[in-house]
Design brief:
Shape: elongated
Number of strands: 6
Helix content: 55-70%
Largest sheet: 6 strands, mixed
Length: 720
Amino acid sequence: MCAVRKAAARLLSPLAFSPPSSAALLLTGRKACGRALEACLARVPRERASVLSSWVRCRQVHDARRVFDETPTRAAPVWTSIIAGCARGGLHADGMIAFAEMLSEGGAAPNAFVLAAVLRCCAGLGDMESGKRVHGWMLRNGVHLDVVLCNAVLDMYAKCGHYERARRAFGAMPDRDAVSWNIAIRACIQAGDILGSVQLFDESPLRDTSSWNTIISGLLRSGHAAEALDRLRQMARAGVVFNHYTYSTAFALASMLLLPDLGRQLHGRVLIAELESDAFVRSSLMDMYCKCGTLEAAMSIFDGWSPLTGDTNIAWSAMVAGYVQNGREEEALKLFRRMLRIGVVADRFTLTSVAAACANAGMVEQGRQVHGCVERLGYKLDAPLASSIVDMYAKCGNLEDARSIFDRACIKNIAVWTSMLCSYASHGQGRTAIELFKRMMAEKITPNEITLVCVLSACSHVGLVSEGDHYFRLMQVKYGIVPGIEHYNCIVDLYGRSGLLDKAKNFIEENNIKHEAIVWKTLLSACQLHRHKDYAKIASENLVQLEQCDAGSYVMLSNMYAANNKWHDAFELRVSMQERRVRKQPGQSWIHLKNIVHTFVAGDVSHPQTAEIYAYLEKLMERLKELGYTSRTDLVVHDVEEEQRETTLKFHSEKLAIAFGIISTPGGTPLRIFKNLRVCEDCHEAIKYISQATGREIVVRDLYRFHHFKDAKCSCGDFW
């Protein structure tokens, strides 16, 4: 501060007065020195414009306004400073107010700088009507439209979304520079005219780095990744210099196409160009490595991120999100805890990623801590945060808390509504989901493709056939949504679960989706549920023909053979699996207790408390038989004696996880169990009786949905 005071003293001396230095001093934000300068500058009217511009660039609008109001004679430079300063600083509304005052006073005519700034303000506000009036005023008054003013007009129409006027303005330009071509290309991209943008780019005689960046990023965002990659290679061959934006777009392209080798080549160019310290480039590079699954490389960049850059939050956010994207939730949470320990304040993006990690892993206690962190930091439940926390609570089996967050969300966009709809669908509350969807439509919220997948899924989980048919038609007729394979598969699932196998097969054939393996897998699953051998054979034959008969499909077919005592067919199928090197995914169940994940497989003896678990389970199964439970020995896929079948069923992974949960928690504590496959029918029946025998609520999340067991009943109504 001492040095600043000395500098101010020198500037206040009439002999040492230097206007550029005064403006520079004001830009430091030292208000006291700046106001001392104002007193001096009051005697030098021409310097008021510099003072005004400096205050505006410092975003000190009130100070700028005070100097402006105290100016006795507002000449053109003063008006230019205040209006152009507002435009540059993003204070578009203030710029428009100042322009209106300038016109009402009539003392100075708007010059080209003022008009260009006003058009920029109109563009920033999306106020095309005002922009049109300014443009019309210029034409009526014979203002010379140089290339800068023409670009301002063109940019205003483009940013206000009037692409036809932008095209006409571009066509009428007598002279065009690189900026003109870039604005026109960007306008075509925003209008969805990708072909037009490519044609303009190819016609442009002034292709600079910005031009290449515009066309490559436009192609990437519009889903033309291969064409974007081709243009990137052309840019490199043409010797055009890559800047930080080029590299960021190129890394996004490499991650979208899963091209880690391309990413590594670009990384090498970044090092040669000495751009590795740029936070924008580094975060894009980390994101690319994460999305390509090369987390070690991403972590190496993260560890080298200097805390002095002031952008470390970007690094933490990118790395946490990378772990979540790669299914490494525990490492994401570990990194998040490390981040908090060293005092880095979590931003909204990081908290959204951590909530997703808790959701995927089913860690409800850690999820509550993340929610508490959101509250402590004073973040409002905006759409991204609200939708992620709703999803977290729902996937952890706590639907009531999910609904509470939904109701409290300050902004309910389509993402928030969709999260809540999907939550009800996965918990088997189809009718509640439909009521919520009706409310959403009443509030004029337009659904998207994902919303309708949730609605159709909700119908399939509870067998609402007529409602599912209705919403499948509605999405096309009312909302113009073209059905994707997810929507078609929901309808096949709806018919299949409801036993309408003829209708499901006909639907597949009528809609020309026989080439989609997922619909045949869904039909095969329905055949297993309803034990329909003929349609199961048709579904499996189609899967074999498509070379998409995976382990799950083989297992379903094998189970059907076993259930019908066709042991020879089941044996031949297992031989076929071995020949094709198809490996069955082992069933696993797990439970979270005191921040530790306890995982079990069928017949597991690896847990430290195995003896206690098995002893308790033996007693529990005897109690269940007294209550009326009977083992579903017909589900055992091996040709063995009845007693051996019963023993096999007794120690399924779900039962082991539940037994461990019961002996490890106080009586009456709800249990939350997670399974990587569909819960088997015998375990489903047994868990109903366990909930009755122990007086506990047991929530099981399997591969497809949630089951809430209480008092010998399941929320699915035995329809799953």
